[in-house]
Write a structure and sequence with these properties.
With about 160 residues, this protein is an alpha+beta fold. It has 4 helices and 5 strands, in the order H-H-E-E-H-H-E-E-E. It has 2 domains: about 80 residues; about 55 residues.
């Protein structure tokens, strides 16, 4: 038992020294505010939200753009088929059904992929604080900060006032 006691102490210190996501996010936000505020000395901490994960939207990904291009091409084909309708209605009907069916398939695939898409990009935290503005008046601010995956750098700030 005496041999295990130092091991327990080392393990305890290792786990107690690691920072929580909240404290890492708060540290990164405070660093950002210190570098970007009009008067960093006037900063007063009011309230923090909990840290939340952020996922990138499906729209704009390479796969979504390919799907949209395919759908756009099919829509163009359907428009071109309207000329065929005048000359050969039976042929038009056959082409229209197959093209429309493929288009609907692509739409369903896009919707399914969009609903299931989850690309993790980082975290957000909302912070309420007081600080002096450019005119020297102390104002209450409410901002949502988006941070990188490592919780070390602020990527963007959204004013929630």
């Amino acid at each position: 038992m005496k041999r295990l006691m130092p091991l327990f102490i080392i393990v305890f210190f290792l786990f107690s020294c690691s920072q929580s996501n909240e404290s890492k996010a708060q540290k990164a936000v405070k660093k950002y505010l210190k570098e970007n505020m009009n008067d960093p000395k006037s900063y007063e901490d009011v309230k923090w939200s909990s840290v939340d994960t952020v996922f990138a939207p499906y729209k704009g990904t390479e796969k979504s753009l390919v799907q949209l291009y395919k759908m756009d091409s099919l829509i163009s084909e359907l428009k071109k088929l309207s000329i065929l309708m005048v000359t050969n209605y039976d042929k038009y009907k056959t082409y229209y059904k197959s093209t429309d069916s493929i288009l609907n398939q692509h739409r369903k695939e896009y919707q399914l992929d969009s609903a299931n898409y989850k690309e993790y990009i980082g975290y957000t935290i909302t912070h309420i604080f007081r600080a002096k503005n450019g005119f020297g008046a102390t104002v209450l601010n409410k901002n949502t900060f988006t941070l990188d995956k490592d919780l070390k750098e602020v990527i963007s700030v959204e004013d929630k006032d």
